[in-house]
Write a structure and sequence with these properties.
Layout (H helix, E strand, L loop, with lengths): L1 H19 L7 H37 L6 H26 L10 E7 L3 H21 L3 E9 L5 E9 L3 H5 L4 E7 L10 E11 L13 E6 L7 H5 L3 E6 L4 E5 L5 H31 L12 E6 L4 E4 L4 E3 L2 H5 L4 H19 L1
Helix pairs in contact: 1-2, 2-3
């Protein structure tokens, strides 16, 4: 591990030297690439430098313990270094794990009402609100691509994009079946109903990221069904794309321009096809994993929201929080941090 870390630090130092050279800035594309490489390595290199500094502190303290005047202070520094080293070593192991190449990408989130009729549609709307508020708390941008609503304000299905650095890395574990247990507003008898909603989280892909043959794509245009006044009624700006080899269908109708809707629909289609490719490639691997965290299978019941008991339970890691109101208001970090930690722990086991 140390040889690898030394090589990475040497590469990082080379990048620093190149960025310090005035002639580098004559090539803006080179500067952008170097800045990106530096950003990707920075946390690992800084942690490694802290680790080496702590090792040095331990060794120096051990030498000073032979000096009667310095013994007490040296023993304290030695003890502190010994306490810090295991945590730093684990952090370095985690940072050395292969990174998901999509972690820095924006995400496309698709929410569909499942079992439970109107109550499922109302909860789908609640989940859309939850993710929107989480995105807002991180100053990410949310844009609806297409939505189908019910008369009571629920959502049959919705597709929306969240734009922000590392959005996919934070939300990628949200794919699966979300179950809600609560008394519906329309239920006069006060009985608790169980409904389900399906969430899919896809990295936003550009059409260049996935091989798309234009001859395989049929485009249809139609009038938007959402809000938009006279513009919606008069202009066929909404776009539907059909990928004929797979039968995949995507729609985008929220933009006023047909061109903008087509561009968004192409990215959504690329993301859907990429996901299908990845699931096919990794199906054998995910079947062998001891933990289901990160497998992204849509038919898994991953979480239960129990309103009468005020709890949210993530079944993959056995985490239960009794703060359902704050979770529904977008307070997701405790859950997402725990899922990321569980995934890291599982991958560390597999790397041994």
């Amino acid at each position: 591990m140390l040889d690898k870390l030394n090589a990475i630090e040497a590469k990082y130092s080379q990048i620093e030297a190149r960025l310090a050279a005035p002639e580098t800035y004559e090539d803006p594309a080179l500067v952008a690439r170097l800045n990106k490489e530096q950003s990707e390595l920075q946390e690992l290199v800084e942690t490694y430098r802290t680790y080496r500094q702590t090792l040095s502190q331990r060794d120096q303290a051990q030498e000073l313990m032979g000096d009667p005047e310095m013994k007490e202070l040296a023993q304290e520094e030695y003890r502190q270094a010994l306490e810090e080293l295991p945590g730093l070593e684990r952090e370095l192991q985690i940072l050395l794990l292969p990174r998901d190449p999509n972690d820095r990408k924006n995400v496309i989130v698709e929410i569909r009402a499942g079992v439970g009729g109107e109550e499922a549609a109302l909860f789908a709307h609640s989940l859309y609100r939850m993710y929107s508020m989480y995105a807002e708390s991180r100053r990410w941008k949310t844009e609806v691509d297409s939505v189908s609503e019910t008369e009571l304000g629920g959502i049959k299905e919705i597709s929306f994009t969240i734009e922000g650095e590392g959005a996919f890395s934070r939300l990628k574990f949200e794919s699966g079946v979300h179950r809600v247990q609560r008394v519906p507003e329309t239920e006069s008898g006060g009985r608790v109903h169980t409904s389900t909603v399906t969430v899919a989280v896809l990295p936003e892909m550009e059409s260049a990221d996935v091989q798309l043959n234009p001859a395989d794509i049929e485009m249809q245009v139609f009038r938007s069904s959402g809000a938009g006044g006279q513009h919606v009624n008069k202009t066929s700006s909404a776009v539907r794309l059909i990928h004929k080899p797979t039968g995949t269908v995507v729609e985008c109708q929220q933009e006023r321009s047909q061109f903008q809707n087509r561009d968004k629909a192409m990215r959504l289609l690329a993301s859907r096809l990429y996901e299908a490719q990845q699931e096919k490639i990794s199906s054998e691997y995910t079947a062998q994993r001891r933990s289901q965290v990160g497998s992204g299978m849509r038919n898994e019941r991953i979480r239960t929201y129990n309103f009468p008991q005020g709890r949210v339970t993530d079944h993959r890691i056995g985490l239960t929080l009794y703060k359902i109101d704050s979770v529904m208001d977008g307070d997701l970090d405790e859950i997402l941090d725990a899922l990321a930690a569980a995934d890291q722990a599982e991958r560390l086991k597999e790397s041994v």
